Amino acid sequence: MEHGSYAQTNLQLLNQLRAAGWSPTDVVLVHNAYEWALPLFSAQFRPSGKPFLAHLVGTASILACHGARPEVVAAGMVHASYAQGDWGDGSGGARTTDRSTALHAALGSGVEDLVSRYTALRWNPESVARIRGQAADLAPADADVVLMRLANLLEDYLDLGMAYCDKGKKTTHDQVVLDDAVGLARGLGAPALADELRQAVDRNAEVDLPPHLRRRASSSATVAPRSHRLRPRLAARDRARAARRRLANVLGR
Question: Which domains does the chain show, CATH number per domain?
């Protein structure tokens, strides 16, 4: 699939998989993954302002286009569940026993294991360089998780996504990661993905957008409906934390 034609909605993705000859069982697995992601990300947005759900669908679409097996595509759909999903339990971005049990029950042990591995994967200049050097020897599950990470990275750069937010500002740290990520994709035997990633990164670097179109955001955020209210218990916890921080600041002076 060429740049710009990756799915961005659940319907586009399902049509993509059916057109590719996926079995009904495998298509249903990805459909279920989307349904699982809905309550976790319905109010979440990427730094560019793009709905998080569209990012998840796009990541899954990229994985499917590059030959990932169904469990990996489903895991790509829910890859950020532990780190950034809104579980409403006050546990922040973490994998907990309750969360892993719920994901396992909904999508199976294979998907849960991949999401768990994805959450634990470090992604910085040192780790990416190390993984790149080991690409040919990675265990299958580890290779699948790295492929998920590369698909996530490409999806962020599609449609000039990084040019529309502060997260896309170039730093030496980011450029080292990107260069090694392109090499890593080649090392995994995915040259087409490597070429797409390089082209997408270059397009983001070359575009000259009016400053007022760039969002002053470098991370995903929740934009809840006006009717949204934090649970009383969690609201009280947050107020208590803020009070403790204020007290610590006073005592530290």
Answer: 10-213 (1.10.3210.10)
